[in-house]
Structure formats: C-alpha cells, structure tokens
Specification:
Largest sheet: 8 strands, mixed
Distance between the termini: 75 Å
Radius of gyration: 29 Å
Oligomer: single chain
Strand order of the largest sheet: 1-4-3-2-5-8-7-6
Helix content: 25-40%
Strand content: 5-15%
Number of strands: 23
Structural class: alpha+beta
C-alpha cells in the first residue's frame, strides 16, 4: 500500500501548483534570496532557476514539489496584495550640501526592459488602473539613492520603483553607490520630459536642461556606475546613451556631417563644447565624438567623469552591435546593461572596450599609503602582472611596416619571413581529392571564441624584449625566434608522447604559415609555433631570439570574464554547457531568434575578444601619418604586437593539433580553413556524420561539440557539387570554401583579404 501512496504523492508533485514566473521572482527577491542560493538548495543549475523565473521552462519532479513548497512558504511571508500596497522602501530623500532635502528624480518600471539578473525575464504587465503613489521619505543618508516616485504611464508595470542588480551579481551584492546600474539611455517622451532608462526597467525623470547640467545630475543624483573589477583598479564611470531626441533637446546634431564623421568629432567651436568649457568640464583628446568622455581632474578617490555614447553618430557599429542603434530606449538599456554587467561598461567600440578590460584587471599603477602622512598616492613602480604605465619598444621583427624602428630601410623594401614576424590566422584551401568528390556534403565546423581560448593560460611578455644570439629554445619563455622549421615533415609526426603517426602531408596545411605553405629557410615565429614543432617530434635550433624575461599570464582574468559572459548569455538563449552533442546542435539551431536582443550581446562579446586583441597592434588611422613616423597608438603601454602574435600563434596551433589528431584517427583531412572555421567533405550533412564520437565521448584531443571556448559548433553545410561549381565559376581551384560555407553565397572571387 505504501508504494501506492508514494505513487500518488509523486503524481501530485508532478502537478504541484506554481505561481506565474514573475511572481516566482518577486517572492525570491522579497526574501533576499539569490538565484544561486535557490539553485544550490534545489540541487539544480543557476540557469535552470533563471529559466523557471522567465517562464521559458517549467520545473519537473522531484524539484517541482520542493520548488512549489518554497514558493508557498514565501507567499505566506510576502503576500502579493501587501506587496502591491507597500510603497517603495528604497526611496530616500537626497540632501544638498547644506543638508536640506534636494529634488529627486521620478522613476518608472517598463515592461520592455527585464531585470538583467535573469537577462531574459519579463514580468507580467498589470493592466489595471491604479493611483499614483507618493514617495515616502526616509532619513537622509549619504549613501542613499535619491527619492524616486513611480508614476503610471501607458507602458508601465505596477508602479513600484526598484533597483536591479547587474546580471552576474545578486541583489545583495549591488553597490549602494550604483543602485541604478552602470548606465542610462537618455530620451525625451512625447510630452517633452527627459527620461533616463536604467537597469531593470527603471526610468528616472531628468531635470537637466543642458549637457553640463546633465553631467552634474549624473554624478550627483543618478547613482550610475560600476564597481572596479580588481583590487588596484578604478570604478567604471557612468555611461549616458543619448538618443536622437535627446541630442535635439540638448543642442547636438542628430547626425554628423561627412567632415565631422571623418574627423570623429564635432568642431571645437560648437556651442555645447563652449557650455562645457564655461562649466570647467574637459574633453579627452578625441574630442566630442561618438564616444565622448567629459571630466574634471580627479581629486583623490573622487572621480568626476561621464562617458557618452551616441548611437546615431555610429557609436554602436552594426558589424558588432547589429541593430542595437535602432532599438527603443528601454530595449537598448537592457542590451547595454547586460553587456556592461557581464563584460564591463563600454568605453568606446568593442575593440576599445576589449583593451580597456585588460587594463581594468591589471592597472598600470596602484595606490600606496605614504608612511609619513598616511595619505594614499599612486605608486611610481608598475603593478605586478601589469604592462606598466610606459610603452616599450617592440623587437624589430615584431614591428609592422612603417614603424619608426624600420625608418632606415629602403623605401620600397619588402621584408620576408626572415625579417618579419608573421603570425596570422589561417586562410588555406586545397582542391578536393577524387575520393572526396564522391562524397555528398561539405560540412563546416567553427571553433567557439577561438582567440579567447588561445589566450587562456598563455604566458606573454610584460616588459621589453632582450636580444639573444644562438639561444636554446625554451617553450616557457615568450618571445620571437628566428629558426628554420622547413625540416618538419607532416607525413610523420608525434600525436602523443611516444606515439608517431603516418599522415598524408600533402593534404594538410603547414602549421607554421597562415597560408599553409611549407616554410623555406629561417623565419620568425612566436613561442607557441616553435613549441609545436618540438611537440610534433622535431628538434629546433634558433639562430636568434627576442625574448621577454619579465612575463606572466596577463590575459587569464580577461579570458575568464569574457568566457563567463559568453556562456551566461548563451545559457539565457537556451544553449547550455552541459548539453549532449545532439542536444547542443539542436539548441544552436535558431538560438538568435529566441531573444534577438541577447543575440546582440553575444555578437558584441565576440567582437570584444577579436577587437581587443587587434588593438594590441593598432595601425595608423589617418592623422597625416607617414611611414617611419610614430602614430598615436604607439604611446600606449598596451600597444603590444608580441602579445597579439602569441595569441594568434597559439590559436592557429590549437586548431592544427586537432586537425592532426582527427586525421590520424579517421583518415579525414580538411579541404579549407579560414581563421577558426574548418571544412570537411562528408557523407552526412552534419558534424556528427564525421566527428568520431564513441558512446557520446569525442576523440581525445580532437574536435568536440559544445559551447565552451575552444569547442566547436556547426558553421554550415553545402553540397560538394556546390563547391566544385563555384570554383569553376570563378576559375579558382583553391577558392576558400570556408568563407562561404555558412549560407553558400559567393559574392566575389576570394582574394584572401
């Protein structure tokens, strides 16, 4: 009989009544519980609880019964009716310097902008009319946010102002200085009221009548910003995103002229810039452009700086931010807040932000306490593990063409591999073999966050290089090595410690050159490339080297932050790190359509990786530059072409290692590679038709399907006949099919650019 009772109990548990998703979240937050705490108690993943609160998934037994019990108990403590009648408890009266209460901005909560904690949560709308509540004043406190009054509107939810925590922190972790999030989108409504759309759907009324007063309001009343990412770092400055309506209100052009666009700024004589000068505000050297920084010199730890982002001036490049610039203010605030909370508050383009993220984890200097006065001051020496505050010269072989180190070269001299380090991503293809032509499909697989994975755990130089003649190669020493690798024979290589494999070397690209060509004679290589030659079983004898004895794993924190941001956002889109191969492929199918706004965040995170690494070797950008002269980027300590070369080298080697393992085990060889995309000929149309999975487990050291950086996803599939057809059409037998495998559209002859 007890078994029957257990079966009945299980049946009841499977249908345990649950409140709506928005109410589940309200109850958890009301008790001060974080998603992580609930997930730990129920022995599920954080993303699972997030899915329950967003309504995307529903709990199943046995967790459903326990979850229902938790919510029932919370509902007894925090009934919905009492919550609706209770005025906002976080309202407080801001005080002026004289101690008198100051006017406070009003707030609304919009249904279009979910709280970033769950990133995809949409609270249910309350369509019933309700009276406008009165903000209740609390005792004045220096750390309290300004008083906020919720006002009903046609787009508002139940009018209770709330503070939303960043998407990767719990509400209890919110810094009281930045209760309204890292940024605000400033817009003007139909009635002429200036509004600031903040995190979690919060909307503040903005009283500022000019740009200088807007900056003052932001610093004194808006409670925007973000805590520092590392101990010696600095808090992120608040970011204001100005819509076209806000630009018009504050006397700024809605769009830049062609001349202004090329200059990257409005003229110095513009009336708004004059207003800022009169109010003692300053602009950085890049002036008032799409990403303007307005500041006053810092006084101790009190920073006075606000970042502006102007989408209609192309601040949000569509190549990286998709259609973000066309989003409504609330949706744009959501996208940028999720990005800011998971990566960092944008400081410019995704490339600039990627570079700034490196510095945020490793500030060049740090504060030290003066032993005599007890006051804090910036240290003269650099922070351990950082690149310091002063730029260092690269080695001559690492210098790009036109660098001042090369000014004595003849004008039209072209440096070869024996003079120039050329570590770049793959762009290689070959004709199909007769056997491959009998197969039906070409299947492309793409490495997730390949360059981020290449940076993970990589030791790079932190200081200046030292020249060494006839060195003994040291795989643990970052640098550039002049060495002949032409003797490495890919037809016989080591694939494990003491295991050699015989391969068809003619079907493999060389791991030592971006075009896959076999090297001829000595050439410059970064440490990971030379180390791979040793790994394949061959001796190396460098002729010369530029090595960096001051080194460290500078990019580890940077990688971890971007990896976590990527995985969290993909999980919100329904693609989790623990899916089986088949489930992963299914989850990836159409993931962008599940939440197009979060898909924008994914794109921006990827661009932050590639752009940040690209900035390490930024080239001249106009400015009247001539070859042999220094350009602006050279003055940065983060202008480090050697670090970029090391990451690209390791990324390319990581890919080649997987290709060799796959070839040794299956006899299959790639037909095209473009950066992190590899194309194979196969009988079936998907990756599982040629990747050697056994009992759900991949080939050790080979390709593995999954969302983690370094694992692969399906890039696209075309028929073999398509590949042969486009090659004939463009009379290019080695057309790189990896460039077009995604959708099959070939727009032009592949010129390698």
């Amino acid at each position: 009989m007890s078994e029957l009772f257990d079966a009945v109990d299980a049946l009841l548990a499977s249908r345990a009544a649950l409140p709506p998703p928005a109410e589940r979240k309200r109850l958890r937050a009301a008790h001060g519980l974080t998603i992580d705490e609930v997930a730990t108690a129920l022995k599920v993943r954080r993303a699972t609880v997030s899915g329950w609160e967003s309504g995307k998934t529903e709990p199943r037994p046995p967790e459903r019964d326990a979850y229902a019990r938790l919510l029932d108990k919370l509902a007894e403590l925090y009934p919905a009716e009492a919550n609706a009648a209770t005025p906002p408890q976080d309202a407080a009266v801001a005080t002026t310097s004289a101690g008198a209460p100051a006017p406070a901005p009003e707030a609304r909560t919009l249904s279009a902008s979910p709280a970033p904690e769950a990133a995809t949560t949409n609270d249910s709308k309350n369509t019933q009319p309700h009276p406008q509540p009165t903000a209740h004043a609390a005792a004045p406190a220096a750390a309290s946010p300004p008083a906020r009054t919720a006002r009903p509107s046609s787009t508002s939810r139940r009018p209770t102002a709330r503070k939303a925590a960043p998407s990767n922190t719990s509400a209890g972790d919110t810094d009281p200085r930045f209760v309204n999030g890292p940024l605000a989108v400033v817009d003007v409504d139909a009635g002429g009221q200036v509004l600031a759309y903040c995190a979690g759907g919060l909307v503040l009324d903005v009283p500022a009548k000019s740009i200088p007063s807007l900056i003052d309001w932001t610093l004194k009343e808006a409670h925007l910003g973000q805590p520092k990412l590392s101990g010696p770092g600095k808090d992120a400055d608040p970011l204001l995103v100005l819509t076209e309506a806000a630009l018009e209100r504050y006397g700024l052009p809605v769009a830049l002229t062609d001349e202004e666009r090329l200059a990257g700024r409005i003229p110095e004589g513009h009336k708004v810039i004059k207003q800022l000068v009169r109010a003692d505000w300053k602009l950085t050297k890049r002036g008032f452009g799409p990403w303007a920084r307005i500041y006053r010199p810092a006084r101790g730890s009190d920073r006075q700086c606000v970042q502006l982002c102007i989408p209609s001036w192309n601040a949000l490049d569509s190549r990286h931010w998709g259609h973000a610039a066309q989003l409504a203010p609330a949706e744009l605030a959501r996208v940028l807040t999720v990005y800011a909370s998971r990566v960092m508050t944008p400081r410019g383009s995704t490339a600039v932000t990627g570079l700034e993220l490196m510095t945020a984890f490793h500030p060049p200097t740090h504060a030290v306490r003066d032993e005599e006065t007890g006051a804090l001051r910036q240290a003269d020496e650099k922070t351990p593990g950082s690149l310091g505050k002063d730029p260092v010269d690269c080695a001559p072989c690492e210098a790009p063409d036109g660098h001042p180190l090369l000014k004595d070269l003849p004008r039209f001299h072209v440096r070869g591999p024996g003079e120039k380090l050329f570590e770049e991503a793959y762009d290689w293809a070959r004709p199909l073999t007769d056997a491959e032509c009998t197969l039906r499909y070409l299947v492309g697989i793409d490495v997730n966050m390949a360059f981020a994975a290449g940076a993970n755990g990589l030791t790079v130089g932190l200081g200046e290089p030292t020249q060494v003649k006839a060195p003994v190669f040291d795989a643990k020493l970052p640098g550039s090595w002049l060495v002949d690798l032409s003797h490495v024979d890919l037809s016989r290589v080591k694939v494990a410690k003491d295991k050699w494999a015989d391969l068809d070397g003619s079907l493999l690209p060389s791991p030592f050159t971006p075009k896959g060509e076999h090297p001829e004679g000595p050439a410059w290589y970064a440490t990971p490339t030379v180390a791979y030659a040793v790994e394949l079983g061959y001796d190396v004898t460098p002729v010369e080297a530029w090595v960096r004895y001051d080194n460290g794993r500078y990019l580890d924190s940077w990688y971890n932050r971007l990896r976590d941001a990527f995985l969290a956002t993909m999980a919100d889109l329904g693609v989790h790190a623990d899916l089986s191969p088949a489930d992963f492929l299914s989850a990836m199918d159409g993931y962008k359509e599940r939440d197009p706004e979060l898909a924008i965040v994914v794109s921006a995170i990827k661009a932050t990786v590639k752009g940040g690494l690209g900035k390490l070797r930024e080239r001249p950008r106009g400015e009247g530059w001539r070859p042999g002269e220094p350009w602006r980027a050279l003055s940065r300590p983060t202008w480090r072409p050697d670090i970029r070369a090391a990451v690209i080298s390791r990324t390319r080697i990581n890919l080649h290692r997987k290709i060799v393992k796959h070839a040794a085990f299956t006899g299959q060889y790639p037909v095209a590679i473009l950066s992190d995309c590899v194309v194979y000929a196969a009988d079936g149309a998907g990756p599982l038709d040629f990747l050697p999975y056994r009992d759900g487990k991949p080939l050790p050291g080979g390709f593995k399907l999954g969302i983690n950086p370094g694992l692969v996803k399906h890039e696209g599939t075309q028929e073999v006949l398509w590949g042969e057809g486009v090659r004939e059409q463009f009379h290019a037998p080695e057309l790189n099919l990896a460039r077009y495998i995604k959708d099959g559209t070939v727009t032009d002859i592949d010129n390698g650019e």
